[in-house]
Amino acid sequence: MSSMSENAITYPKALVAKLGTQLIAKDLPKEIVELNELLDSPMFKEVEQEQGTPVLPSAGKAVCEMMEVVKPILRTLIANANLFNLWVSSMIPEGVSGDSLGVSIQKHLQEEIVKVQSEADAYFETFPKYFETRAKAARIASEYPHVEECGQLVVEMDQINILFLQNIVREVRNFYSLLHDFGTKNWDKLQSGQSSNTNGYH
């Protein structure tokens, strides 16, 4: 008969294994398809600015709309990365040397996951900075409407941020593809927690 403490230890690991399996088999492929569709949508295709000085109050509308789409994508990325990290961690057998090829690759993947999570957090910090910088540029453009460079600065800022947001979606898509590729190629080894360096990881 199992004790309550044993159940408390094994249940989370079983749950993580179930969710990790679902992540690889269903969730990541779905996310990749949806992100590809988003990149092909009118909002995230190349956006051409109209010629001339922009109408300042609405010039950043496209950027704002794209940001609202990207924010939940980044939140989902952080959640999925956390789950994948937990899943991989649960596959590393206790007491196995870090010199083992399987374990070393698992740990390398975990380092990549942590890096991506840090980048996602950094992306969130850039959003308010964009509005702060753009507000200053728009104010100057309003004060000096006869100076074309002032208005063009606002346009350039929006174009740069549109490309930046497009690139974020591509990077998230590529990261999901990396996780899915690693998970599917090493499915049996991850499921069994294999750490032997006989065959290695792909």
UniProtKB/TrEMBL annotation:
InterPro entries per UniProt: PA28_C (IPR003186), PA28_C_sf (IPR036997), Proteasome_activ_PA28 (IPR009077), Proteasome_activ_PA28_N (IPR003185), Proteasome_activ_sf (IPR036252)
Membership in a protein family: Belongs to the PA28 family.
Residue ranges occupied by any Proteasome activator PA28 C-terminal domain in the UniProt entry: 60-199
A family per Pfam: PA28_C
Single GO MF descriptor: endopeptidase activator activity
Gene Ontology CC terms: cytoplasm; nucleoplasm; proteasome activator complex
Lineage start: Eukaryota, Metazoa, Ecdysozoa, Arthropoda, Hexapoda
Domain Proteasome activator PA28 N-terminal residues, every copy: 20-46
Record key words, sorted: Proteasome
GO biological process, alphabetically ordered: regulation of G1/S transition of mitotic cell cycle; regulation of proteasomal protein catabolic process
Protein role: Implicated in immunoproteasome assembly and required for efficient antigen processing. The PA28 activator complex enhances the generation of class I binding peptides by altering the cleavage pattern of the proteasome.
Designated name of the protein: GL14290
SUPFAM superfamilies assigned: Proteasome activator
Keyword S-adenosyl-L-methionine: no
